[in-house]
């Protein structure tokens, strides 16, 4: 991302807001994007909540059960092998 261009667009009203995750972390404390009220900045791991991890494990287990029960997976990576039927 061109941070300078984003800063200019946010300050000029061409972009209403931005939600950013930074890599590498942490961003520099003096990064001008971080002072804008229309910017939300999170670390890369922000989506790794307890709830998200529970749902990931739950859905993986449900898919394993589904396949071991003789059904096609709901979201296969290789759909041409399984076809479109569930």
What does this structure look like?
With 86 residues, this protein is of the alpha+beta class. It folds into two domains: 3-46, no CATH class; 50-82. It has helices spanning 3-11, 50-68, 79-82, and strands at 18-22, 39-43. It has a two-stranded parallel sheet with strand order 1-2. The longest helix is centred in the last third of the chain and has 19 residues, at 50-68. The two termini are 40 Å apart.
Name a few traits of the molecule.
3 helices, alpha+beta, single chain, 2 strands, 86 residues, two-stranded parallel ribbon
The number of E-state strands comes to 2
The helix fraction, in percent, is 25-40%
Name the shape in a single word: elongated
Calculate the mean pLDDT score and round it.
88
Can you tell me the number of structural domains? 2
Beta percentage is 5-15%
Q: Give the number of helices.
A: 3
Strand order of the largest sheet: 1-2
Determine Rg (CA atoms, Å): 21 Å
Query: How far is the N terminus from the C terminus?
Result: 40 Å
User: Spans of 5+ residues with little confidence (pLDDT < 50)?
Assistant: none
What's the order of the H and E elements? HEEHH
């Amino acid at each position: 991302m061109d941070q300078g261009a984003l800063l200019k667009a946010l300050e000029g009203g061409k972009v209403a807001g931005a939600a950013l995750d930074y890599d590498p972390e942490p961003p520099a404390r003096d990064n001008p994007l971080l002072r804008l009220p229309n910017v939300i900045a999170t670390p890369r791991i922000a989506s790794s909540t307890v709830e998200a991890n529970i749902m990931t494990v739950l859905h993986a287990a449900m898919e394993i059960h589904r396949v071991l029960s003789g059904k096609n997976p709901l979201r296969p990576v290789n759909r041409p092998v399984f076809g479109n039927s569930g």
